[in-house]
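Reopening: Mg/Co/Ni transporter MgtE still failing for me.
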Amino acid sequence: MSGNLINRVFLARLAGTAVFDPNGDPVGKVRDALATLRANNQPPRILGLVVEVPLRRRVFVPITRVTSIESGTVIITGLLNMRRFESRTGEVLVLGEMLDRSISLVETGEKVVVEDMGMEQNRTGDWLITRVHVMRRGTGLRRKGATSTVTWEEVSGFATSEHNQGVANLLATLSTLRAADLATVMHDLAPKRRVEVARALNDERLADVLEEMDEAERVELLAELEGERAADVLGEMDPDDAADLLREVGQERAQALLELMEPEDAEDVRRLMNYEDYTAGGMMTTEPIVMTADNTVAEALAAVRQSEISPALASQVFICRAPLETPTGRFIGIAHYQRLLREAPSRLLGSMVDTDTQGLNPQASLNEVSSYLASYNLLSLPVVDANERLLGAVTVDDVLDHLLPENWRHDHRDNSKTVNVLEHEELINTEESER
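Support: Ran it again with your exact input. Result attached.
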């Protein structure tokens, strides 16, 4: 292998590093490394890198395609197989499965925790895990013990299973990921490791991740959480997503979780569960931005600036009579975000409200909802009852979730075509032979 390959690379530090082709065009980011354990405690051999490419697809890049590892960049060459990465028997994800393990120092038997793994290239060109950065257990009031880097031969315990593996160092490598990207990473973890990560996330972060998961995965994950914790996470989810999830867990389990939720959160979810899934009522959120005609443009802009508001919901403010909690007083109309930007901050919303956008009833079909959004170029639309009270809003992302086929989040990554990273270069070794 030619190029500027440095002698030793610590893999936790490599996570998130940008990957480029030889022309300098970005390919993706490093998310993990794949290794295989060997007999007689020999240093594991690195098979390749797991790289995240556009559309959140994680693919395998053989280590023989890596020509340069420098500060902040990885350069690869050859044909990049775009088939979604899946590990095989005997293979381990270094960051996903080896970090945070409790292992022993061979000489003393002392228990230590893995914080990082260092790989080096030997004379034959193979990359091996030769160093392990470990933390000793703290004593007394010390929260953390001393850290040191030891050789692979100086530790043991990687071959044994561990029931309660920590996740602190793994989560540190994933802390900057968006919820959808973290959901993709968790999809590739072993079920046991996926549960460990889920239990370590705070309620809000886990709620965001569950909203991005396939139905089967999130049902399985929710089943692994204790009742109180599961109820707290459901309370942090958007009510429509929580309702969708509870429809999937079975009536008895759903009722038990609703009883554990905060009454206000449970009320919104119960209301949504009364509607059919593929209707406006079943898809809507009960928490759009609602204001009165007497609110000002400045107040409306302050509301849409809130970071927890999704872009689709932030695109418009729904003007209603009091009360402003759904179901509201009579729905009046919509104040569009672009119009807000053009008006004086002190202007009242009632003087600029769009009354032409009529609400749909909660029984409106998926086809009616999608046609309405497309016809009027809206990102969200109001759902109203027979008395013209605002019940909620359906956003375009909710509609897409229902229009796309099941498991679309991962199906679109299964495309097995290959992309030529370096044109006119022949593919000498296939992925199969290199693994």
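The CA atoms of residues 219 and 249 lie 6 Å apart. If you still see a failure, please send the error message rather than a screenshot.
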